[in-house]
Design brief:
The chain is mainly β and 127 residues long. Helices cover 0% and strands 45% of the residues. A hairpin with a 6-residue loop joins strand 4 and strand 5. The chain is globular.
């Protein structure tokens, strides 16, 4: 079992930055794909960014490319989401997700490929 705890959310003005963190329990973090998803009020959950464990390759939603950066620190069991040039449409609850141990995910945007989810952290961007 893996527990994920997100932090770093908050209220920021448009154009500002935030860095989200997701700390994972256990000793198998380095062998899990990690992803960030978000859900705005009245909308479905959507993919934001993800990073594989095998080669640290990444993928991003078109809406955040060039503004958001995902990274991981295996020594700290933590994945980060650096969010720059934030827009009001980025307002959502952001969720961290982890794959099963040793699983390679081809389609990182597919939420069904992730086995574990955090409770989420609220990000609000004011205009």
């Amino acid at each position: 079992q893996v527990q994920l705890v997100e932090s770093g959310g908050g209220l920021v003005q448009a154009g500002g930055s935030l860095r989200l963190s997701c700390a994972a329990s256990g000793r198998t973090f380095s062998s899990r794909c990690m992803g960030w998803f978000r859900q705005a009020p009245g909308k479905e959950r959507e993919f934001v960014a993800a990073i594989r464990w095998r080669d640290s390759s990444t993928d991003y939603a078109d809406s955040v490319k060039g503004r958001f950066t995902i990274s991981r620190d295996n020594a700290k069991n933590t994945v980060y989401l650096q969010m720059n040039s934030l827009k009001p449409e980025d307002t959502a609850v952001y969720y961290c997700a982890a794959s099963q141990f040793g699983t390679y995910i081809g389609d990182l945007a597919n939420a069904r490929k992730y086995a574990y989810w955090g409770q989420g952290t609220q990000v609000t961007v004011s205009s």
